[in-house]
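The protein record quoted for completeness.
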Amino acid sequence: MTDNDLKILFKKWQEAETKIPLPPHHDHLFAQRLKRRFKTKRVSRFMLRAASLLVLVSLGSFAVYLTQLPDQEVVQFQKAEQHFFQLIETQMEALETQGSPQMKKIVSHSQKQLQKMQQDYTALYQQWEQNPTQPQLIAALLENLRLQNALLIEIQNKITQIQKANYEIL
């Protein structure tokens, strides 16, 4: 194809191309369409904002639900549990400092009993974690800690009695 042929084809195409006449007041019709389009965008923006606000409010209320303060009973239990743990730990440290073979035998026997009690405590604690609405489990946990403490006090009393008896013999 030569340049001349291309020019002829473009002229034929241009002549064949029919221009659609614009209706009268076409600019007014165009402006109306734009207004309708912006109205729907405004409505959709409003709906988008309302939906996002609704999602934020629901997430906020869910977060508040998850982070509610624990019951007063649970807080008291945790304080009491911490107190008993500190008592038991200090008493165990005092028992472990005993040096005589007779005392070590008593301490090792008491440690075995304490381990059994601590295993019971662990089992009760796991039950309580699975069902925290049962106050009987909290009472049982505290009773177990009280018994552990009482056992350690009893063992310390036995050790002091043995030590007094040994001093009296000497």
Observations:
- Residues 70-169 form one domain.
- The chain has a mean pLDDT of 79.
- The CA atoms of residues 38 and 48 lie 15 Å apart.
- The chain has two domains: 19-68, 70-169.
